[in-house]
Design brief:
The complex is a heterodimer of chains A (417) and B (140).
Chain A (H helix, E strand, L loop, with lengths): L7 H9 L7 E2 L2 E2 L1 E2 L10 H13 L10 H20 L8 E4 L2 H16 L4 E6 L8 H10 L2 E5 L12 H5 L3 E8 L11 H10 L3 E5 L11 H4 L3 E5 L10 E5 L1 H5 L11 E4 L4 E3 L13 H17 L1 H20 L4 E4 L10 E6 L4 H10 L2 E2 L1 E3 L4 H6 L5 E5 L6 H17 L4
Parallel strand pairs in A: 3-15, 5-6, 5-7, 7-8, 8-9
Antiparallel strand pairs in A: 1-2, 4-10, 9-10, 11-12, 13-14, 14-17, 16-17
Helix pairs in contact in A: 2-10, 3-10, 4-5, 11-14, 12-14
Chain B lengths: L1 H4 L2 H8 L12 E7 L4 E10 L2 E10 L2 H13 L5 H5 L3 H8 L5 H7 L1 H14 L14 E2 L1
Antiparallel strand pairs in B: 1-2, 1-4, 2-3
Helix pairs in contact in B: 2-3, 3-5, 3-6
The chains are: A alpha/beta (417), B alpha+beta (140).
The structure holds pyridoxal-5'-phosphate (PLP).
Pyridoxal-5'-phosphate binds next to α4 of chain A.
Chain lengths: 417, 140
């Protein structure tokens, strides 16, 4: 099925929904090319968030009074929306956390600690964001399990032929992989990895922070066991993230954090846990943010995640073409728009990425420079840092043109010949 | 506007760094890294009568970090060790004379911090607390 990308009219309408895009910096309109870091927010989401606080705010799961009942309903409706977004078999599988990082830590500190030990192998990849790498290092240290990484080639493709060798290192218990690299934009062959992992009797943790925002993500089709994403990259507010996990796995786990909300009954000697999903939601949850996330997901679905994916593909293709015109520019990672998302890392001659980002900022072009929380990946690619431009449903070709003009100015200022 | 930020003087020091390259023999030495952006400098100092006879550096990184270290080599020449070890960050920021965000200030003071580590280490005196190992900088 091919979906037509967003039209110019669609884009104008979408952009009008994002108040920050009307902002000027240094006398020029903002060109925000850092959505892989965090997304900008549509007015509809902002209205839902402030509207909730203005009219319906009360703590959830407590109040007998009408306001508390309403806020509980709004919070739980957000959970239903997330469950539907991910095609989750059950709403009980959707746990609200603070962000992707906390979601992954939750898995490491519950499933990981309760299932891994000496002789076991945890598998991750060189592509991972620190959020999907450090928790596994700590887990390996804590449990005595071995941590192994799948390497990449120079364009960022996973070298899956190394899996057999990894399997000989012990009993593979858990495979943690990203759905899309936040630095290179590559989308690893998750289906193959899932098949291999399940063949080993291992569970798969998918870091979907970079894909839930911009394409349809179906946990049943993916056949993964845990999946994490962040609200703030998905047009939603900060402070809310999601962990989805198979009910059969979540049900037998001991809790992550303990305290209020997650209990059924507390006696001084002993406490029994609440049912799913609340067993994993200790303390007052981010219920207002959940309402904001609900509105954000409604917004994404109204535009259409297939259309957003197609738009990102088209804009990435355009960006790769325009960037190739700039003398001395080198794309780090996949060279074409196939099998990748709207994230492009590059270097310009030997100008340091910080200098590039700073000069682009003077043109009101916002890009990231650094290791993008993927130090091992950047090191593996043999560079100290990259410049990263990332795109979303509101990104226009005109903004890419501004980026390219800015890069010519970088060449001028830095005296690149 | 651009030239506000990357003024001629800064670019001149970046493109033609002063006192660049290793010393054959030195009395104090340290390496500094800013892992956040991959800036790195190695600072070497030759002392005579308690004063800095020569400071040289090698390294790589953004224009601000490298130019600031180049400027520093000229700034500290002839200062006593005590004077150089007490040199405030503002001295190098004044030298750069460009507006810097908090993140770029770390680039700007990398060379100075590394010099301080070298001098205090050679003298066996403790590094002032504000220059101690931070999340951002690694001295070695
Ligand atoms: C692929 C990936 N994983 C994890 C994270 C961490 O997300 P958060 O900081 O919201 O926990 C990010 C965000 O930068 C990411 O891009």
């Amino acid at each position: 099925m091919t979906v037509s990308p967003l039209t110019a009219t669609d884009l104008d309408r979408i952009r009008a929904d994002f108040p920050i895009l009307a902002r000027a910096l240094h006398g020029q309109p903002l060109a925000y090319l850092d959505s892989a870091s965090t997304a900008q927010k549509p007015q509809q989401m902002l209205n839902a968030l402030t509207g909730f606080y203005a009219t319906s705010n009360a703590n959830v799961h407590r109040g007998v009074y009408t306001l508390g009942v309403e806020s509980t309903e709004a919070f739980e409706a957000a959970r239903d929306t997330v469950a539907a977004l991910l095609n989750a078999p059950s709403r009980r599988e959707v746990i609200f956390t603070r962000n992707t990082t906390e979601s992954i830590n939750l898995v490491a500190k519950t499933y990981g600690v309760q299932h891994c030990g000496p002789g076991d192998v945890i598998v991750s990849t060189v592509l991972e964001h620190h959020a999907n790498l450090v928790p596994w290092q700590v887990l390996a240290e804590q449990t005595g399990a071995t941590l192994r990484f799948v390497d990449i080639d120079d364009e960022g493709n996973l070298q899956l032929d190394a899996l057999d060798e990894i399997a000989r290192a012990g009993s593979v218990k858990l495979v943690a992989v990203t759905h899309q690299s936040n630095t290179l934009g590559v989308r690893p062959p998750v289906a193959e990895l899932v098949q291999w992992a399940h063949g080993q009797g291992a569970v798969v943790v998918l870091d979907a922070a970079q894909t839930v925002p911009n394409r349809p993500v179906d946990v049943q089709a993916l056949d993964v066991d845990f999946l994490a994403f962040s609200g703030h990259k998905t047009l939603g507010p900060t402070g809310i993230g999601v962990l989805w996990g198979r009910e059969s796995l979540l049900a037998e786990l001991q809790p992550f954090l303990t305290g209020g909300e997650m209990i059924r009954s507390v006696k001084l000697e002993r406490t029994s846990w609440n049912t799913l999903p609340w067993k994993f939601e200790a303390g007052t949850p981010a219920f207002a943010e959940a309402v904001g996330l609900h509105a954000a997901i409604d917004y994404l679905q109204a535009v259409g995640l297939d259309a957003i994916d197609a738009h990102e593909h088209a804009i990435t293709d355009y960006a790769l073409g325009r960037l190739a015109e700039v003398p001395g520019l080198r794309i780090i990672g996949p060279q074409t728009a196939a099998e990748r998302g709207g994230v492009v890392s590059f270097l310009l001659d030997d100008v340091h990425p910080h200098d590039i980002a700073e000069i682009l900022d003077r043109h009101a072009v916002c890009v990231r420079a650094g290791h993008h929380c993927t130090q091992p990946l950047v090191e593996r690619l043999g560079v100290a840092a990259t410049v990263r431009a990332s795109f979303y449903l509101y990104t226009t070709e005109a903004e890419i043109d501004r980026l390219v003009e800015g890069l010519y100015d970088v060449r001028r200022v830095m005296g690149v010949r | 506007m651009m030239d506000d930020l990357y003024r001629e003087n800064l670019m001149d020091h970046y493109q033609h760094p002063r006192n660049h390259g290793p010393l054959a023999e030195c009395d104090a030495e340290a390496e500094g890294q800013n892992p956040l952006c991959g800036d790195q400098v190695v600072v070497q100092v030759k002392l005579a009568d308690g004063a800095i006879e020569e400071m040289r550096f090698t390294g790589h990184g953004c224009a601000v970090s490298q130019a600031a270290t180049s400027m520093l080599t000229e700034l500290v020449q002839g200062l006593t060790v005590a004077e150089a070890a007490a040199l405030p960050s503002q001295a190098i920021l004044d030298e750069l004379a460009i507006p810097l965000s908090a993140m770029r200030v770390k680039c700007a003071v990398l060379g100075l911090g590394t010099l301080k580590v070298a001098l205090h280490r050679a003298a066996g005196t403790p590094l002032p607390a504000e220059w101690g190992d931070t999340d951002e900088m690694i001295w070695s």
